Amino acid sequence: MLHVTKSFLPDLKEYVKYLEKIWDSHHLTNDGPFVKELEYKLGEYLEVENFIFVSNGTIALQLAIKALGLTGNILTTPFSYCATTNVLIWEGCQPIFVDIDPNSLTVNSAQISTTTDLNSINGILTTHVYGNCGDLEKQENISNELGIPLIYDGAHAFGVKYKGRSIFNYGTVSTCSFHATKVFHTIEGGAVMTNDHKLADKIRGIRSFGHKNDDYFDIGINGKNSEFHAAMGLVNFNHFSTIKQHREVSSLLYDSLLHEPVIKYLYNPDLERNFSYYPVIFTSEKILLQVTEKLHNNQIYPRRYFYPSLNNLPTLSGIRCTNSEDISRRILCLPLSANISENDIIKISSIIMSSL
Ligand SMILES: *Cc1c(COP(=O)(O)O)cnc(C)c1O
């Protein structure tokens, strides 16, 4: 059986070494030595001044929204995982969807200025979907001109660089997810990253109930993560460049085996990619369903990331986002992982091509 991904697991002995240290120190959670080490190492690697390790990528977004004090209308993308929209609603904000650019599948910057009443907008939350991005400078300019914060959901973008700089340096604050299905994982986990020290202090405070010892300075939540999760991150991080390389070779093999009428998803040429997903686009939903059935018959389980378009979630009374709705019906993420074999990719590609 082949699923859309298979979580990387290191040699058990490598992880046990960390477990032994946890047993010795008896420090299980609450800003322990492994959490601190992971924050230091990933902060350096991702070139951000503040790297705050949290329990998952969803609470990372909630902490960012809370710390920025966002309320009211927030511009957002309809093409992402449902968490991106749900956190806004959960935090009492109103998502205002801006349709995506049909190539990058990220929020169309030009459309921001033309389609919405900008005076009523208090922030922007958008996603570096599949680790890709649109015109980040333009988005930063819009955020600066309007004087509103720009949050990037970078759940897919671990290790991605844009114009030679870590992508997490763009915007007011960025988040990442280290869930077991992501390109780099800590089993469950996530991060909030920002170069704004004041904002970072606020987030660190509310990550841990808003108090330190007897000083109750804020209303917080429990967004901490444990030594066990940090240890998994430290072990996995040692393997990240090998994992990324394998995923790159695998993606290039797909590239060489899949051709028309399969439409390949194009990345921004200014990116250094992380090969987190391998999405392909079909000419119609009917063909996508046909291909999916053939793959299922062979115990191959791709995923419809992302379907439906979030403006059509049953919990929302949606406005139309034509590009996002159209792409959502036609896009499929093929299996890709740290250990997928050449033969698997050849098999998947040939099933797809022969079913068209
Ligand atoms: C996975 C994901 C999240 C949520 O991350 P968790 O760590 O699972 O909470 C948020 N946004 C996007 C785009 C994701 O893919």
Structure description:
The protein has 356 residues and is α/β, with parallel strands linked by helices. The protein has two domains: 10-237, Aspartate Aminotransferase, domain 2, CATH 3.40.640.10; 240-355, Alpha-Beta Complex (Aspartate Aminotransferase, domain 1). It has eleven helices and 17 strands. It has a seven-stranded mixed sheet, sandwiched between helices. Helix 1 (12-25) packs antiparallel against helix 8 (227-257) and helix 3 (57-67) packs across helix 4. The longest helix has 31 residues, at 227-257. It is globular, with a radius of gyration of 20 Å. The protein starts with a strand and ends with a helix. The structure holds pyridoxal-5'-phosphate. Pyridoxal-5'-phosphate is lined by residues 56-58, 80-81, 83-84, 127, 153, 155-156, 177, 179, 190.
Task: Give a summary of the structure in a few sentences.
The protein is built from eleven helices and 17 strands. The strands form five sheets. A seven-stranded mixed β-sheet has the order 2-10-9-6-5-3-4, sandwiched between helices. The protein has a three-stranded antiparallel β-sheet with strand order 8-7-14, with no helix packed on it. Strands 13-15-17 form a three-stranded antiparallel β-sheet. The chain binds pyridoxal-5'-phosphate.
